[in-house]
Amino acid sequence: MYMPETAGAGCAFLDYDNDGWMDIYLVNSGKCDFLDPSPPLRNALYRNNRDGTFTDVTERAGVSGNAYGMGIAVGDYDGDGWPDLYVTQYPRNILYRNNRDGTFTDVTEKAGVAAPGWSTSAVWFDYNNDGRLDLFVCGFLDYNQSKNLYCGEPNLRAYCMPNAYHGTPNRLFHNNGDGTFTDVGKEAGVALESKAWGVVAADINNDGWLDLFVSNDKIPNWLLVNRKSKFEEIGALAGVAYSGMGVPRSGMGVDAADFDQDGWLDLFLTNVDHEAFSLYRNRHDELFDDVAAGTGIAAATLLLSGWGTKFFDYDNDGDLDLIVCNGHPDTVVAKRIAGVKYAEPMLLFRQSGGKWKNVSAESGSVFAKDFAARGLAIGDFDNDGAADVLVNVNDAAPVLLRNNAARGNHWLGLRLIGSKANKDAIGAQVTYRSGDLQRHRTIVGGGSYASSHDPRLVLGIGARTKIDSLEVKWPQPSGRIERFTSLPVDRYITIAEGEGKWK
Amino acid sequence: MSAMKKRRAPCSVCLVAMIALVSALGMTPVQRGARSGQFDSMQAETELQQGIDLTRKGDFRGAIPHLRAAHEQLRDSYAAGFNLALCYVGTQQFSEALTVLQDLRSGSHDTAEVENLLAQSYIGLGRVDETLAAVRRSVELAPKNEKLYLFAADAAMDAGHNDVGLSIVELGLKSLPNSARMLFERAVLLSQLDQFDAARADFHRARELAPGSDIAYIAGAQEALYAGNMAEAAKIAREGIEKGNLHFLLLTIFGEATLGSGAAPGQPDFADAQEALERAVTAHPNFAGAQLSLGKLYLQANRINDAIVHLEGARNLDRRNPAVYANLATAYRRAGNEGKANEAIAALTRLNQEQVENIASTPGERKAGYASRVESKPPKP
After folding, report:
1. pLDDT in tens, B41-54
2. Helices B288-300 and B304-317 meet at what angle, rounded to 10?
3. C-alpha B350: how far from chain center
4. Is B369 within 8 Å of A236 when comparing Cβ atoms?
5. Has this prediction a pTM greater than 0.90?
């Protein structure tokens, strides 16, 4: 029993060939010091055939991975308009640069981003507001086969909890703009010894600098607030580091979004069984309240272990909802803890006017099934404006959920392309109005667990039939605000920074 | 042995376990002159009486100087010695308690109560073998005295020796197999040891043995908490309170479960939770769990200064409870006192670091797995 086996892998929606259709990337286990599978295992890139089917193009694309895969972060780090892939692995990560012809090149060595050790999630974001995407990589355990421990009882071995091992530092790779990166983790204050599973990059204090919320397993979570390129860790002061009991939990998946539409980004955190998940409402002063109990989310998740998660408006009514995939880390848990299973169902919570409802039971038979789910990505693979869900599962086939719930509601899909701001517009804030409905949306970096999402925003307007106005506030160093009217609905448009028009 | 001592991280469903730590607080002070000889001076008698009065009110710290003064002048007074030891145990000054109690034993005051306080002192010092020996002597003297088992078991739980507490309660259940309180205590201990199925069965049996009692309602609320149903726990606790069961634990569970159900300031449920917790604190000011819960409620209500008063009260009563520091940090941060907030976080970090070090020092096969959850149990004595 080796610890990386508990983790399982992430997944992504990405448009690697820029044809306007979301493709899929699935991370898989692979050869490492404790595993030499025969036949060999590999990651997979599936091209979207635009008809509801996909074609495996991994071999041609050259993105199969070369170790025990963990996660993926997609970002256009070189600003050429084509998405690049950063694949986290045990014990060494890979950066695949997109060659713009359906193939990729492993540029890890030249870029200097191998990050030896065990990494989990990673996120592309512009930490120093220079307009280029930098890379934050979650460090997990100081681990190799020779350090593997026996845990559990003499007659029933169990996977260890991470507190049996030392952690490893996170890394922050500064994008030098020439295809290379410099690890500035120590100088920036993020190289804390971590046991990190998840990360989301989001401006939690509205100061124009992207912060990081990092979930840790059995040590306090970090809230790394960006003070002009230097980070201050304020998790405990902010109220997001510990449970209400004052103990660190097994933080896993994370996300950020302004679910209550007060203009400030809130946070979500998944944990393991008997810890409950947390919904942190932003108090506007770098303090958060855990409101999960009052929403029913805490009760619904008390016996579950959550991994991938994302806020998204699944029914396009304009209110952000929430999805979580679950699965206990240990295969033998059912023998030890009553009411807890290895494979667990997914949960879907619908939000309306600040009230949350668990709508899993009425959202399709798939929500009654159990999975050892890990990574979760959101993306509209059939371009119908209804955000779909991709889930990677341990020792089983992935799950692709087509969203039928948004039918009948109207929407506008939005692709933002930065020029002075970072190309992927991470940190951009969008405000739209449709009749009596006004909503804010923010493009955050990463979120979920070890996964990457459709870069497009889908703006739901319910039964309304037109969008009266749309405002885009581009992230720093731009800060430019652009306003648009006379917009279409029920289709995707692209807005490039500074062009003053949509396509 | 002491390196193996753990205070287990409280799980979110173990509300009763978290707040049931009353140990010596429940023991009745011995009346002045009950077994003492004649007083040599009026001053000593006055000091003793003041000490007993304060002990009755639960003000152990305040009582100690008086009782110490009386004890110095009246070395053979059982009342002075016993009450002083009781206050030492109540304030976790176990070494001091031990000295006094050993004097009492050697001075022909070897009562079941003295042995019981000895057991509580030993467990507070992590001396497991001597604890169990003292418990055995205590129950030989008074095998049907339910409280003696409960006090010792509570003390063991408070010291993080849940399996020692379990041994004590199981000893008690041999003499008193139909004791609802003892079954309730065992359920609390089993839940601390993550044996939830067995705990649930004991809670259920306790409810059957004492229907309509405070224990029945507390146990019922706890069963609901196991199912993750805060609203049901609050409902059961409310029913018990409305039927006149005003046990401070029931009031505290009601307050906590109501807040956990999402009651927000301005709502009737929130006001009910506030009233219940205020009553619990008034009834039992030395119960850290109620102080903590009331502090959290005031924090939610934005009554920051009131919150700090009760959270500081909880800290004084239970200095090793991480929840106290987590909430104190938030309260001080919201009061704008970042220095105090950082102090609270430093204390919280220290407590959690101790836990990390304990786990690191645990032998291989005792290290916790994701599926075992018990963060290392002391070996069976």
Report:
1. 678 888 999 999 99
2. 160
3. 22
4. no
5. no
